[in-house]
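Slide 14.
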Amino acid sequence: MSARSAVLVVVDAQNGFIQPPSAPVVPVIAGLVERWQAAGGDVVFTRYLNYPDSPFERMIRWTQCQTSPQIDIVPELQPYADRATAILDKKIYTMFSEEGDALVKAHGWTDIYICGISTESCVLKTAVDAFERDLTPWVIEDASASDAGQVAHDAGILVTRQFIGVDQIIRVADVPSHLLPELV
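Slide 15: predicted structure.
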């Protein structure tokens, strides 16, 4: 696998999803993205954009993340997002909207390294959708979190293992060194 076939996807690291349980993952993501970009790797940030009368509003009764500052990428990650290959706005759980599919195809990415918020929903759905597209998803467990807490994060990891395989759940330390060299 060449570095060119891999992409780091930072899922929904937005102000609206930063709560006490998810806040500690932000510096982990920042360090990961900094090293990934220093190695010349492609990075995609996703941003979830809710809207009036969305399924999230109608069925889950969740009305957050419709406007700034909730939809904004957290300030600690914004400088990395500014240098990202793409910022992908989405109105669904997964990055694999029509635009996301086209982005993956255009860049020829085959290995999708996934981190971000929330492990039990948007991270999981992105991983499963990558798997079902015959791509190779890698969920970076210690660079992912849930704004709903550790139990939700752990449940997301458990279910993701069942969907995509136990070996596809990794830690930052497990990312291949050619993709993630140490900074000097």
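Speaker note: Helices lie at 25-38, 55-59, 78-82, 98-107, 119-132, 150-164.
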